[in-house]
Amino acid sequence: MFYYVKGPVAHIAPYLAVIDCGGVGYACHTTANTLSYLKKGEVAKLYTYLHVREELFDLYGFSTEEERSCFELLIGVSGVGPKAALSILSATSPEGLAMSIITGDEKALTVAQGIGKKIAQRIILELKDKLAKGQLGTSAGGEQYGGTGVTIIPENKSTEAAAALAVLGYSQAEIAVALKGVDMESQKLEEIIRQALKRMVK
């Protein structure tokens, strides 16, 4: 319904930002990361997601499309609601979340308030499974076996970075362009992903 809202920041509270759009204040539930970029009275643009349940309509807003994509992925996991998703994305960046999923690092998820070991394991399991089945895109360098549609991802920086970007919702073509020419040898995986993301938003 809403792709984004843009206007002066009218109010800021924990996990909430109100954006004034033509005299109408849109209350956007958001993350601590997004709030860190906002200042009251300054114009902001938040990419939105409208969450509908029963008779409630809750609007969520994020400073980047990657953060919004991660939010949508997280609430698609059984047992993970919007509150838990915001908590996770307040404790880590989109690239950090993608790395946690690809590397199976449940400890990186449990640092988020209210996220226990079982929920962290479920997030990693379900999102890895979606990636393997190609539902989040096919990573560059992956191989498919036996016509099953399962993508086997070799363990090296290039393919791990590609898989992490696929988690964020980018296509194989976009990933190939973003990673072309990036120094894979001397940089850490998170920095490789960060550079690729910067290229995509240019």
TrEMBL record:
Parts of the chain that traverse the membrane: none
Role description: The RuvA-RuvB-RuvC complex processes Holliday junction (HJ) DNA during genetic recombination and DNA repair, while the RuvA-RuvB complex plays an important role in the rescue of blocked DNA replication forks via replication fork reversal (RFR). RuvA specifically binds to HJ cruciform DNA, conferring on it an open structure. The RuvB hexamer acts as an ATP-dependent pump, pulling dsDNA into and through the RuvAB complex. HJ branch migration allows RuvC to scan DNA until it finds its consensus sequence, where it cleaves and resolves the cruciform DNA.
Complexes and interactors: Homotetramer. Forms an RuvA(8)-RuvB(12)-Holliday junction (HJ) complex. HJ DNA is sandwiched between 2 RuvA tetramers; dsDNA enters through RuvA and exits via RuvB. An RuvB hexamer assembles on each DNA strand where it exits the tetramer. Each RuvB hexamer is contacted by two RuvA subunits (via domain III) on 2 adjacent RuvB subunits; this complex drives branch migration. In the full resolvosome a probable DNA-RuvA(4)-RuvB(12)-RuvC(2) complex forms which resolves the HJ.
Helix-hairpin-helix DNA-binding motif class domain span: 72-91, 107-126
Protein family per UniProt: Belongs to the RuvA family.
SMART domains listed in its UniProt record: HhH1
InterPro entries according to UniProt: DNA_helicase_Holl-junc_RuvA_I, Hlx-hairpin-Hlx_DNA-bd_motif, NA-bd_OB-fold, RuvA, RuvA_2-like, RuvA_C, RuvA_C_sf
Region of interest (Domain III), ranges: 157-202
Gene: ruvA
Keywords: ATP-binding, Cytoplasm, DNA damage, DNA recombination, DNA repair, DNA-binding, Helicase, Hydrolase, Nucleotide-binding
SUPFAM superfamilies per record: DNA helicase RuvA subunit, C-terminal domain, Nucleic acid-binding proteins, RuvA domain 2-like
Protein name as catalogued: Holliday junction branch migration complex subunit RuvA
Cellular localization per UniProt: Cytoplasm
Domain topic, free-text comment: Has three domains with a flexible linker between the domains II and III and assumes an 'L' shape. Domain III is highly mobile and contacts RuvB.
GO molecular function: ATP binding; four-way junction DNA binding; four-way junction helicase activity
A matching Pfam family: HHH_5
GO cellular component: cytoplasm; Holliday junction helicase complex; Holliday junction resolvase complex
CDD domains in UniProt: UBA_RuvA_C
GO biological process entries: DNA recombination; DNA repair
